[in-house]
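worker-3 :: picked Ribosomal RNA small subunit methyltransferase H
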Amino acid sequence: MKHSATFSDLATGPQARAVRPLPEPALTYFPDVRFVLSDRDLTAGAAPIPDGAAMVDDQPHVPVLLDRCVELLAPALTRQNPDGSGATLVDATLGAGGHSERFLAEFPGLRLIGLDRDPDALRIAGQRLAPFADRITLVRTRYDGIAEAVAESDCAAKGVDAILFDLGVSSMQLDRPERGFSYSTDAPLDMRMDAESDLTAAEILNTYDEKALARLLREYGEERFAGRIAAHIVRRRATAPLRTTGELVELLYQAIPAPARRTGGHPAKRTFQALRIAVNAELESLRRAIPAALAVLRPGGRIAVMAYQSLEDRIVKSEFTAATASRTPPGLPVELPGHGPEFVALTRGAERAGAEEIDRNPRSAPVRLRALEKVGGEQR
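worker-3 :: tokens ->
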């Protein structure tokens, strides 16, 4: 875990690697490539910047469900003072800092701990949040490092008042094609959220055996043609290794049957999702992060989690269901004192973005928002 106490080392980042549009064969295979949304892609082309959007490195950044997140977490942040004095919010997925900026501006006494594994995100968020520098601590860590980050802060003894997770790949990462997360431009097969980690998408594609590739695509991408795709990958790399996103897109055209390519969104979506999840160990990290986050909340504290695909949401739903269940042994006719649920749900199931928000911010279309309040027990 690496802390960032100042913003000077966040002001500059590594030079971006050159990217280029997909080669014409790939555009022929997928003629709608410039127009189909991925889970959190903005519309392609010169789309107007939505009202309220901030510019991050010359790109529009629109936080998802921003008003609803503030509405859900504000009661926990204003229990002591209306301006948030004495309260601490953990933004466990800092990204470009859009959600954090709103909370810091709306609650001028609030303190923030921002977590992100991506040094580019910390640099950009540090610049964006510079006006609030005396109230924030930025920590370079995955979100399953939340317990350690809180333990090293000045709120270690009392716990935190609110926690926000905005899962998946960030808009900043999608908007930088040189990172290799997008299938709409030709770039190195990277997909690392932390550029200092070892595993890349190219290494997975070029070294995993066929069975392991098929399992990865099936489990993390829910790809029904996982076996066909894995076989094509193994045959292709026997001639030359896969190095770019464009090469992978062309291979997927060959592997996926034509009728399937014409339905269900972009044909590369599931494979890219699976590789990204595997490279960054996202699901394993999330399984550890949610219980750790619940444990550091103070009684009366709140947590909100936004998920963008079913694999993430299943984990969140399972952990939240367990947290809101009675701890009385099954079969007893009454609930034992002190064994009631430690958390209560603030949302009825998973909330979705409304039509107006989706029109303003297409990235909000797949979001599923769940939130809890801690009503009993001590800080665990």
